[in-house]
From TrEMBL:
This is Electron transfer flavoprotein small subunit. The lineage of its organism: Bacteria, Bacillati, Actinomycetota, Actinomycetes, Micrococcales. SUPFAM superfamilies: Adenine nucleotide alpha hydrolases-like. It comes from Pengzhenrongella frigida. Residues 21-213 form the Electron transfer flavoprotein alpha/beta-subunit N-terminal domain. Its cofactor is FAD. Pfam families: ETF.
């Protein structure tokens, strides 16, 4: 069974700063293994161990995703090998473009039975890439996955839904997005980190991949805090509690908070 975990080497929002005008500065944000991807890696490792399968880490991004630190951080998560597409032209690439490159890489790997992703990326958090990736591959997509068992071509998947848990029987290849609490991800130890440096890594040339031409692209050019967070300093006279409450409700509705 060949399992691909699509992960992201992303900047941590906790290290970003917000300027006086609301513009978010990412220049000092340190990159790392995206917060929710270790859960996907853990689910993949458990399934591979149960079926005798292989886990392949796959990432696309700028040249920094192919740095030695980035490679070891990913491979120490339980991957057997990694496939990396590193090209600076992917700086600020949107969900559609990233998913198209990931799909091309999955096709290059070949005979993939399952792709698992995290719930979302820590930097953008759009939750769109798994679904768009599935569309690019022509595979079904399932989100909020909490359990995966079975064999290649015959998977039993449990997913969280508002009313409880839904059980799915899936035949053929599929893209699964793991719920954030689907598993407790193991923390890599020194042995894992040292072993990661010896695992094989395949670097793919972006230009050589079979990526369908897109009618258009989206590019992230910047981020800023929403205007809703701007304090207006509106004062409410509380001498009449009933009138104050009504004024507060009216003000919140006017601001779009209710």
């Amino acid at each position: 069974m060949k399992i691909v975990v699509a992960y992201k080497w992303a900047s941590n929002p906790q290290d970003a700063t917000v300027g006086a005008q609301g513009t978010v500065d990412w220049s000092r944000a340190k990159p790392g293994f995206s917060e929710y991807d270790p859960v996907a890696a853990e689910l993949a490792r458990r399934l591979a161990d149960a079926t005798g399968g292989e886990v392949i880490g796959l990432t696309v991004g700028t040249k920094r995703v192919d740095a030695t630190l980035a490679r070891k951080a990913a491979l120490s998560r339980g991957f057997d090998r990694a496939v990396i597409v590193a090209d600076d032209s992917l700086e600020g690439a949107g969900s559609t473009q990233l998913a198209a490159v990931l799909a091309a890489a999955v096709r290059h790997i070949g005979d993939v039975d399952l792709v698992i992703t995290g719930d979302s990326s820590v930097d953008v958090g759009s939750k769109m890439v798994p679904t768009v990736l599935a569309g690019q591959l022509g595979w079904p997509a399932v989100a909020e996955v909490i359990s995966i068992t079975g064999q290649a071509g015959a998977l039993r998947v449990e997913r969280a839904v508002p009313t409880g848990t839904q059980v799915l029987e899936i035949t053929g290849p599929v893209v699964l997005a793991a719920s954030t609490d689907a598993a407790v991800a193991r923390v890599p130890g020194m042995k894992d980190i040292l072993a990661a440096g010896k695992k094989p890594v395949e670097s793919l040339d972006l230009a050589a991949l079979d990526i369908p031409a897109a009618a258009g692209t989206t590019t992230v050019t910047g981020t800023s805090r929403p205007d809703l967070l701007t304090r207006k300093g509106q004062m409410i006279d509380a001498s009449d509690p009933a009138a104050a409450a009504a004024e507060l409700v009216a003000a919140l509705r006017g601001a779009g908070a209710l």
